[in-house]
Amino acid sequence: MMREWATVVAWKEGIATLHTEAKTSCNSCSARKGCGSHALNQLGPKNAHVMTIASAEPLQPGQRIELGIRESSLLGSALLVYMTPLFGLFLVAGIFQMLFHSDVAAACGALLGGIGGFIVAKGVSNVFGDREAFQPVILSVALPPDALRVESEV
């Protein structure tokens, strides 16, 4: 199971709004100055994801929870997102090449097939994305921010 920590933004009537940050490996690599990926990551927006998840247990803003999602659903989603457009690209390019015997037609077919593959992947993900197997689950809940107080006597 893939695990990720999230911070609770709000909880209302059994629905928790969570905030997660996308992590890159650039912070742990020592080749930052000579790396093109590090430069591109600095230019782009800092990816933060906001999601909602059902939680019967009341949660407080600022509380950390651990989410989990099955590897099989993650791999299936990646396969759908990457392979469907690629399959559409090759299929329609091949059909246009056979029909019109032109490289320009094959290139146009490849473009149409790739776009069509993205549309098909989006439609399939909308249908299958609501299934329970593709939803993250709460694995553990950390203490609320105000539950632990440390006092030191000097």
Would you kindly provide a brief summary of this structure?
With 154 residues, this protein is of the alpha+beta class. The protein contains three helices and five strands; from the N terminus they run ββαββααβ.
Description:
The structure is a single chain. The chain has 154 residues and is of the alpha+beta class. Helices cover 42% and strands 23% of the residues. The protein is built from 3 helices and 5 strands. The protein has helices at 36-43, 71-100, 103-128, and strands at 2-12, 15-21, 48-54, 64-69, 137-141. It has a 5-stranded antiparallel β-sheet. Helix 2 (71-100) runs antiparallel to helix 3 (103-128). It starts with a strand and ends in a 13-residue tail after the last strand. The mean pLDDT is 86. Keywords: Membrane, Transmembrane, Transmembrane helix. InterPro entries: RseC (IPR026268), SigmaE_reg_RseC_MucC (IPR007359). Pfam families: RseC_MucC. This is SoxR-reducing system protein RseC. The chain crosses the membrane at residues 74-98, 104-121.
Low-confidence stretches: none
- What does the largest sheet look like? 5 strands, antiparallel
As a percent range, the share of strand residues is 15-25%
**How far apart are the first and last residues' alpha carbons, in Å?**
45 Å
Notable traits:
five-stranded antiparallel β-sheet, transmembrane, SigmaE_reg_RseC_MucC, alpha+beta, membrane, 5 strands
Helices and strands in order, then pairings?
Layout: E1 2-12, E2 15-21, H1 36-43, E3 48-54, E4 64-69, H2 71-100, H3 103-128, E5 137-141
Antiparallel strand pairs: 1-2, 1-4, 2-3, 4-5
